[in-house]
Structure formats: structure tokens, C-alpha cells
Amino acid sequence: MNVALIGVGLAGGRIVESLLAYESDAGVDFVTDALAVNTARADLVELERLPEDRRVLVGQSRVKGHGVGADNELGAEVTREDIGDVLSVVDEFSTHEVDAFLVVAGLGGGTGSGGGPVVAEELGRVYAEPVFGLGVLPGRDEDGINTLNAARSLPTFVREVENLVLFDNDAWRQSGENVSTGYESLNRELARRLGVVLSAGEADGTGDDGAVETADVRRTLNAGGVSTIGYASVEVRRPKRGLVARLLGSTPDRDEGKVTNRVTSLVRRAALSRLTVPCDIESADRGVVVVAGPRAEVSRQGVERGREWVREETETTEIRGGDCPMNSESVAAAVLLSGLDDVPRLNELRRTAVEMRRDILEKDSVSGHRYRSLIRASGGDGDDGDEESIEPLF
Ligand SMILES: Nc1nc2c(ncn2[C@@H]2O[C@H](COP(=O)(O)OP(=O)(O)OP(=O)(O)O)[C@@H](O)[C@H]2O)c(=O)[nH]1
Prior knowledge:
Elements: E1 3-8, H1 9-26, E2 31-38, H2 41-45, E3 55-57, H3 60-63, H4 72-81, H5 83-91, E4 100-106, H6 111-126, E5 131-137, H7 144-160, E6 163-168, H8 169-172, H9 179-198, H10 214-221, E7 226-235, H11 243-248, H12 256-272, E8 286-293, H13 300-314, E9 319-325, E10 330-338, H14 344-362, H15 372-377
Parallel strand pairs: 1-2, 1-4, 2-3, 4-5, 5-6, 6-7, 8-9
Antiparallel strand pairs: 7-10, 8-10
Function: Involved in cell shape control.
Family: Belongs to the CetZ family.
Pfam families: CetZ_C, Tubulin
């Protein structure tokens, strides 16, 4: 699948770079071009892989390159004002080769959660290719404003993209981890999962029957709403060949049954693994199974059996899938499940956001606080809003 990546905000830019790192390490080719957008100059400087002309600073006239300090209304506003700068860089992409855009953002901050949906809306307006999103949910230990930002940005982001893949930082952070090294390993885990899914279609156009195609992933994501990804991998040791076999050039016998079982179990483990956002897999509307690895280690029958198993477990007939040849030392299975209708973390996030807003508004000490207008904008301020609902960002 050929994707154009646009990372908005710090988390967005870092995750885009992790995907680029995965792509080069795995020797696959799914990123057509990539770009980072930010309101903070320092966050763009921190990036390592994207060239200078693929880093766009927005809102300079308003926030002087210092970021929007978790104000996602301001993040949305300044991104909209400078959207021309973003689109002119996207214009330089080989968009005729692009199958889809992927807008990546952390939903807890100001720039990504505000600017991400704006970028998605504008790309959808200008280009015919689908626009997908990847949204990172803030942890429970972050400030109330991060939860409120995510609760407001989510419905807007979901509306502006064809599908929003979710990643829940909380479900992935190990206790006691240093935040920045923690993010690094989180981003690697995320890139591994998404990387396998986006590698689908490497064999597009070759007429290879069992290979998973770009269209399989696109149709799965067309279910709309939000999605999650499960993943499992296993190292494969190439069997040693004796001297005579090497001289004769013969290939070692392949235990077909063993390879098939290994692939089937791998797909099951992926579906039952810790998902990028935990949920009941039965709540999925569609899915796609991608098994990537050396051709000799990926049994088509194994993929088919695994797919059948996911179909039964999810009680969903629309489970697509296939293999994806890759020159690696391991076989990896990723299961993308979309159109989820029950994600407990999202319900909790909304509830917490309502409670936090109430708490913050009740505390006298926050009168005149810089977040007060934001909190009012989120609705339920006692004047005319509904106390139990959160207003979408726009
Ligand atoms: N997975 C992951 N999450 C991150 C990373 N950096 C930040 N986050 C999360 O993303 C949220 C948004 O943070 P940032 O991306 O730093 O914020 P921003 O969008 O740049 O917005 P401002 O800094 O407010 O302008 C935070 O609430 C964190 O939960 C990262 O590298 N990886």
C-alpha cells in the first residue's frame, strides 16, 4: 500500500519517523512521502529522519514557534490559517502514486489533537484518495486537559477521516518507564503493527493469488469509525544444510504441516494479543489478516485457517487477508479490526472528561486560568451546555 504520512504535533512527527524506521529495517516500501507539521519549532528540530523541507511550522505569526500549550482550539485555528503551507508541501508528493493519506496525531496535546482533524479535513477536500487517521489516546496519569482534548478531538477526527486507528498509551506503557524512552519503545511497537498492515499490497499487480492486496486493507478501513490492531511474531531459524546438500544446491525439506500450524497459531495469537486499543474483538465489523515473512515460512493454508478462525471468533464474515512476502528473520501476523462499536477506553475517556471539566469549573482557584475558555468551549459549563456531553472540537 502506498501511503503519504502526515504527522501533526510531537507524537505525530515521532510516530511518522518510527514508521520510516520500520520501513527501512524491514526492507519494505510503503511510504510514498512523509511530512511533519507542528506549532513548536523545537519539536520539529528534534526529528531525525525527515528532511528540512518535510517539516512545516504553522502558527508562527500567532505563537512564534513556541507551540500552543495544550490548547487544541488554538491548534486547530492556526493549522487552518496556515493550511496552505501544509498543502503546498503535499503538492510536491507523488500523489498519483498514493493509495491513501495517513494523518497521525496524539489526541491529548494541542497541536496534534487540534491540527490533525483540520489537516484530514483539508486533504479530504482536495484529494480523491482516502484519508485515514492514527490517533494516540492520552494516559490516565496525564493532566485533565489532555483527557478533555482527546474527548473533544476524537469525534471530530473520526468524522474527518474514513477510519481512525487507535493506540492507547495506557495499555502499552510499562509501569516505572521513563516517559521519553517509554514513548520510544511504544512507537516502535506501534510501527511494527501498523507497518505489517501497510506492507499489504507489496505484491499488487503480480497476479499472486494468496497475497494480501492494498484493496483488502482499504475495504476493511472503509467500515468507518475506529479500529485496532493485534500482532504476534515468531523468529524463524533457517535450517542448516550439510556440505553435500550445499554442493548439490538442494533446498532443505520443508515440513509443510509444521509451517501451516505455526502460521495458524500466529494469527490466533495476534487476534488475542494486547490490541493497540483493547476491545472485544466481536465488536468489529470487518477485518484483515496480514502475515508477513520469508516465502518459505508463510503457509497459505495456515493463513487461510487463521482467517477462518478470526471469522468465527468475531462472528464477522468480512475478514479478508493473505500473505506478504518479506525478507525477514521472523514471521509476523497483524490483524486489523475495524468498525468497532464497543471500546471501553473511549467510554471511560468521555466519562472522565465530563467529571474533570466539572471539577475544574468548581475550583475557584482556576478562575482566569488559561484553560477556562477551553473548558467552557467543551460544553456543559452550566450556562447553556449539556453537563453530560462533550462538544466536538469543530
Ligand atoms: N505514543 C506516543 N505518545 C506520545 C508521544 N509524545 C507524546 N505523546 C502523547 O501524545 C499526547 C500529545 O502530546 P504531544 O504530541 O506532545 O502534543 P502536541 O500535539 O505537540 O501539542 P502541544 O505540545 O500541546 O502543542 C500526549 O498527551 C501524550 O499522551 C510519543 O512519542 N508517542
